[in-house]
Amino acid sequence: MEYTVQKLAQMAGVSSRTLRYYDEIGILKPARINSSGYRIYGQAEVDRLQQILFYRELDVSLESIKDIVTAPSFNGVQALREHREKLLDKREQLETLISNVEKTIVLTEGRINMKDKEKFEGFKQKLVDDNEAKYGKEIREKYGNETVNKSNQKVKGMSQEQYDEVTKLAAEVIETLHAAFKTGDPAGELAQKTAELHRQWLCFYWDSYSKEAHAGLAQMYVDDPRFTAYYDEKQPGAAEFLRDAVHIYTGFNK
User: Fold this and answer.
1) Measured distance CA(175)–CA(183) in Å, rounded
2) How far apart are CA 86 and CA 213, in angstroms?
3) Which domains does the chain have, with CATH numbers?
4) Quick one: DSSP state of residue 252?
5) How far is Cα 65 from Cα 137, in angstroms, rounded to an integer?
6) Which residues contact 116 (CB under 8 A, 6 or more apart)?
7) pLDDT tens-digit profile of 82-137?
8) Nearest to 60 by CA among 90, 17, 35, 102
9) Who's near 158: CB < 8 A, 6+ residues apart?
10) What is the pTM of this model?
């Protein structure tokens, strides 16, 4: 069966403008253009749109989705299995949050006692799931499943105080980085303070710290456009500056 832009958009629950944009960026081309100039989509395009929407539901960027679905090695069936696993993880997270909210309602009404640790379980799980969705593939390829799994367990085992501290520390890293960037000296006092704060932040997530891994991660901030976009959001060039500061801090600046 074939669909026009309007019919496919209506069926998929997206706007016609979205489908036209997907065509423009090359992530979802129509099967053909008919004699009237309308985009026509077939079964293959419907299946690809489903894959794209699955990835979008998991907060994967369009740039990354394009790389995934247009790769020669892309396997639709395997991708669906991976979607299923990630959606099951997301469902578990949502169920934890729902349970958390329900307990908090009852707690507020004075009917039960709720441990402080329980109040933050859903948020910690969301942090793990968000990181997996955005960077999981690359991080697992670089550091291995065992290392990443240990890191995830460490996050989920954080106390409320640790969770608050690491959140505060993350903001401090960015604030100090921006101040250091203005000096233009990655070897300077502020830049090296940034690298030290970054090390402290990492230690909340990593099972063990090594200078080599720290330097490698800093390089990934430059090599991976998603990481670069995060650090460069308010200060273009900040990712490279942080990389240079960390490489000096760890002794890998040769």
Assistant:
1) 13
2) 27
3) 3-69 (1.10.1660.10), 75-156 (no CATH), 159-254 (1.10.490.50)
4) -
5) 13
6) 160
7) 777 777 777 777 676 666 666 556 555 554 454 545 445 555 566 666 667 766 67
8) 90
9) 120, 124, 166, 204
10) 0.49
